Amino acid sequence: MRPTQAPFPATRLRRTRATPAIRGLVRQNTLSVDDFIWPVFVRSGEGIEEPIPSMPGVFRRSVDKVVEAAREAADLGIPAICIFPYTGIEERTEDCAGAWDPDNHANRAIRAIKAAVPEIAIMTDVALDTYNINGHDGFVEDGEIVNDRTIEALVKMTLSQAEAGADIIGPSDMMDGRIGAMRSALEGAGHQNVMILSYAAKYASAFYGPFRDAVGASGALTGDKKTYQMDPGNSDEAMRLIERDLAEGADMIMVKPGLPYLDICRRARDTFGAPTFAYQVSGEYSMIKAAAQQGWIDEDRVMLESLMAFKRAGCDGILTYFAPAAARLLNGA
Ligand code: PBG
What we know:
Blueprint (H helix, E strand, L loop, with lengths): L19 H7 L9 E8 L5 E3 L7 E4 H14 L3 E6 L19 H12 L4 E3 L16 E2 L2 E2 L2 H17 L3 E2 L8 H11 L6 E8 L6 H6 L21 H12 L4 E5 L5 H11 L3 E5 L1 H12 L5 H14 L4 E4 L2 H8 L3
Parallel strand pairs: 1-3, 1-4, 1-12, 4-5, 8-9, 9-10, 10-11, 11-12
Antiparallel strand pairs: 2-3, 6-7
Helix pairs in contact: 2-3, 4-5, 7-8
The structure holds ligand PBG.
Ligand PBG binds next to helix 6.
Protein name: Delta-aminolevulinic acid dehydratase
Keywords: Heme biosynthesis, Lyase, Porphyrin biosynthesis
Pathway: Porphyrin-containing compound metabolism; protoporphyrin-IX biosynthesis; coproporphyrinogen-III from 5-aminolevulinate: step 1/4
């Protein structure tokens, strides 16, 4: 005898997809303007908004223009902005002294934004690549990227940013032991409330290409970053890095790049439960822009779908060049 079967499917999962109201009701994850950190590029000069050819819609702005951009971002409800300096080859040196100059354009931007747009949180970038003659995140001695001497410089850079008024320090260098060194320096200098968002699981990725154009590092970089950034084949190592950085005093952690590493985001969230961010990096942004410019994909929908993926993977927020455009869509403007 054949087992009796009901003449209808036991579960009709389509029932909960039938209307916008029901879909909204059962939706597990939501994307909101609160989820965004907006990376911006700052350069010298005044009144300048210089387009970056490999990142359509992204500009290098002089400090006054970065302040205007921060004002617009805050008005859109974007909670945080992240400052990356652009430095021409003529401003780069072997000793990277510009990195901790209190008056470098990143620090001037931090001060100016703090004064004009106090409600937006300011995140920084800590790494030597934007000041280094050879484009590396650490000092190079005899062809090697040296760890401990680099950390001394990163600590000075961190303190100069905290003095300028940064809320969140963003070490993107991948040296060993830098989080502990930065945390104790911040404590020692009376900056105990300054946060550290560690680029804990940062991979040696080809998706950073357009960013290196944006900060002027493409021509400068000699060799690759594989001795300090992670091998894309590894997952357990990412967990060890995150665990270490949290133990050394990081408040929040980041996985970078984003979409190709969503498995790492999910693992990080499930393993540590710490505030978890992903960086939708320049190459991810430019791929979407390029395909949209060709008319091959719907830019707005792909943008929002890619951002939602990070929420589904367990991220609390996303660093994304799409922040203002996504905010406008989410705000219904
Ligand atoms: C460098 C840094 C990089 C990015 C952020 N900080 C590039 C690199 O490691 O070479 C990449 C961001 C992006 O691609 O959008 N410290």
